[in-house]
């Protein structure tokens, strides 16, 4: 069985109209249950945030969705332009909040130098979420998360940063499926096929932290978590190194604390 066949067999989700309806119904239900006025979405010009904000508009209407772009000095100019152009095409309100001054204030006050760039990278992600909640609290909105299933399974997000939100509309979709949904929604091709890049530090690329792109990673994840195949079987079926399969399985285990409420002493769980 080749990787494409494994993807198709594992997901079975190819009716994008039905998927869109299911997600938009979910968004409406979450917002109505919370008696919220709308939603705020962090927009980066990337795939996941673009799909999320588009779905929120389809669910709630343009007047109940706020997009917030939070660039740094090293954010690619094209990414910010893509985010704002999408907001304009969706006819939603959009705010731009540069975060460099906020990060610099943290650095001045904190008594410890960052050990590596990941420390400040995670700080940037958490500052962005603080900003989103500022808008949400001020407007009685909910924060719509933009993480997808691929990222969640391997822990490729910042805990209490981009991993924090009130609800996640696309958390059940793998990255490759999000691209297909983006195409169905008619998003710009530039966004659909843009390489994934977290941009948490200058020149930050996906390949710096992950062992491959999502076209390689997703079939493995589906084999592990949807088909419940053994790593050896996945390696043989997909013709990928066993070490790669084990690496992704290890990432899932190490990131387990990110996917649940804080661990508590047995008998003291909230």
Brief summary of the model shown:
By secondary structure, this protein is of the alpha/beta class.
Would you kindly provide a written description of the structure presented here, covering whatever features stand out?
- With 270 residues, the chain is an alpha/beta fold.
- The protein has a single domain, classed as HUPs (Rossmann fold, 3-Layer(aba) Sandwich).
- The chain is 53% helix and 6% strand.
- It has twelve helices and four strands.
- The protein has helices spanning 3-11, 16-33, 47-60, 77-90, 100-109, 117-139, 149-154, 175-185, 189-192, 214-225, 231-238, 242-254; strands at residues 38-42, 65-69, 93-96, 141-143.
- The protein has a four-stranded parallel sheet with strand order 3-2-1-4, sandwiched between helices.
- α3 (47-60) links the parallel β1 and β2.
- α1 crosses α10 (214-225) and α10 crosses α11 (231-238).
- The longest helix is centred in the middle third of the chain and has 23 residues, at 117-139.
- It is globular and about 50 Å long.
């Amino acid at each position: 069985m080749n990787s494409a066949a494994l993807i198709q067999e594992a997901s079975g989700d190819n009716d994008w109209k039905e998927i869109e309806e299911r997600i938009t119904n979910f968004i409406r239900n979450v917002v109505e249950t919370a008696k919220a006025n709308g939603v705020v979405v962090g927009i980066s010009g990337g795939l996941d945030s673009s799909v999320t904000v588009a779905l929120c508009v389809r669910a709630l209407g343009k007047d109940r969705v706020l997009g917030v772009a939070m660039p740094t000095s090293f954010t690619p100019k094209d990414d910010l332009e893509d985010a704002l152009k999408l907001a304009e095409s969706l006819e939603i309100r959009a705010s731009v909040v540069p975060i460099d001054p906020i990060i610099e204030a943290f650095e001045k006050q904190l008594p410890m130098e960052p050990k590596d760039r990941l420390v400040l990278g995670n700080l940037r992600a958490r500052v962005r979420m603080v900003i989103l909640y500022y808008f949400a609290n001020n407007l009685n909105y909910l924060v719509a998360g933009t993480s997808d299933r691929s990222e969640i399974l391997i822990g490729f997000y910042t805990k209490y940063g981009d991993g924090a939100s009130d609800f996640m509309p696309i958390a059940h979709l793998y990255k490759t499926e999000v691209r297909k949904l983006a195409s169905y929604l008619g998003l710009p091709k530039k966004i659909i096929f843009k390489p994934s890049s977290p941009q948490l530090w200058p020149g930050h690329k996906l390949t710096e932290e992950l062992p491959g792109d999502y076209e390689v990673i997703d079939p493995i994840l589906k084999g592990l978590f949807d088909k419940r195949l053994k790593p050896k079987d996945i390696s043989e079926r997909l013709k990928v190194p066993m070490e790669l399969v084990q690496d992704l399985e290890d990432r899932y285990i190490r990131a387990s604390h990110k996917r649940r409420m804080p661990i508590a002493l047995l008998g003291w769980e909230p």
